[in-house]
Prior knowledge:
homodimer; 196 residues; mainly beta; 6-stranded antiparallel sheet; DUF1989 (chains A, B); DUF1989 domain-containing protein (chains A, B)
Amino acid sequence: xxxxxxxxxxxxxxxxxxxxxxxxxxxxxxxxxxxxxxxxxxxxxxxxxxxxxxxxxxxxxxxxxxxxxxxxxxxxxxxxxxxxxxxxxxxxxxxxxxxxxxxxxxxxxxxxxxxxxxxxxxxxxxxxxxxxxxxxxxxxxxxxxxxxxxxxxxxxxxxxxxxxxxxxxxxxxxxxxxxxxxxxxxxxxxxxxxxx
Amino acid sequence: xxxxxxxxxxxxxxxxxxxxxxxxxxxxxxxxxxxxxxxxxxxxxxxxxxxxxxxxxxxxxxxxxxxxxxxxxxxxxxxxxxxxxxxxxxxxxxxxxxxxxxxxxxxxxxxxxxxxxxxxxxxxxxxxxxxxxxxxxxxxxxxxxxxxxxxxxxxxxxxxxxxxxxxxxxxxxxxxxxxxxxxxxxxxxxxxxxxx
Lengths: 196, 196
C-alpha cells in the first residue's frame, strides 16, 4: 500500500510530480484547505494560471474533468477525482500581509505564502513567482450579482480527496493552510500520496 | 485642455504613470474593453495582483474607492471614478492561444497578450510576467451557484470612463481589446488621458 505523507498544520512541502503520475490530496480530518501551486519542472517561468484555466473551462469552480492550464496555455494537469466539488481559484495564498491587513495581527504568521516560499526556494523559486493558487477544499462564496466574496468553512469531511494527473513534469508546492477563516478556525494536517 | 490619446482597435500601448498622477480611461464609442496591467516602475518583479486585490476588497467587482494591490500587498493605485461599475479581474488577456482554443481560429491574432508584450518589451517585460489583467469595461457574468462564467457585451456607453490614481510610480500596459466576444463583435478604440 502506498504510504500517505502528512503536511503538518500551518506548514508546506514541495516535490516533483512526473508526467503521468497522479497526486491524491486528502483532507485527513475535514475542513482543512491546501494551497496548491505548480511550475513546469523544466522551465519554471511557466506556472499554473488561474486566468487561463478559468477562461478555458468557462467556470470559476474547477472539478473532475477540468484541465488546468499554465500561463503559456499548456495543460499542466487534469483533475481525475473530486469527492468535494468546491475549491477556490481566485485568491493568493495567505501571507504576513494577509494576517496584517485582514486579521489585524501584530506578529503575523508567514502564512501559506511563506510556507510555499520556504519549500520552493531550494528549487529556485522566488516569492514574486508565487501566483494565485488553486486552493483545494477552500470554500469561497461568490455573489454573482454584487461580486461580494465570503470565506466559509470547507465542505470537505474527513477522508474527502481530489486526484490530479500531471500532463507535464511538475514542481509542486502545497500547504496545510494557515489562515483561520479558511479552515473554520482550527488548523489541521493535509495528506497526500503520489500514485504511479 | 489635455489631449485624449487614442489606442486604435486591436492594439496596445505602454507608458509611465508617476505616483500621484491620475489616468482617465475612456470608452470612446461604447462596448469596448481595455486590458490593463501595471508594474512597479522601479522594480518590475512587483506587479498588479488580482488575487491580493480581490482578497483585500472582499469582492470580484472592483470600482470607485477600491485599492488595487501588488503581489507584494502594496497599493499600486486606487480607483477614483467609475461611470460603469462593471469590469473583470478574473481573466488573462486574449492571446493566440485564446483564439485557437476558444474561437477555433486557424490563423489567430496575437490578441491583447501579444499587444501588451509588444508595448511592454522595450521596458524589459517578458511574456511570462504578464498576469491576470484588470479588464476595464469587460462584462463577465458569474453564476455564484454553479461558477459558470459568460462573457457579455460591456455595459459601457460612449464617453463612459474610469479614473485611477497611482500610489507608486507605475509602468502601465493597456489595450483596445482584440477579442470578439468581449466587445460585442466590433473592434473600437480606447481613449486615455494622463491628468496631473
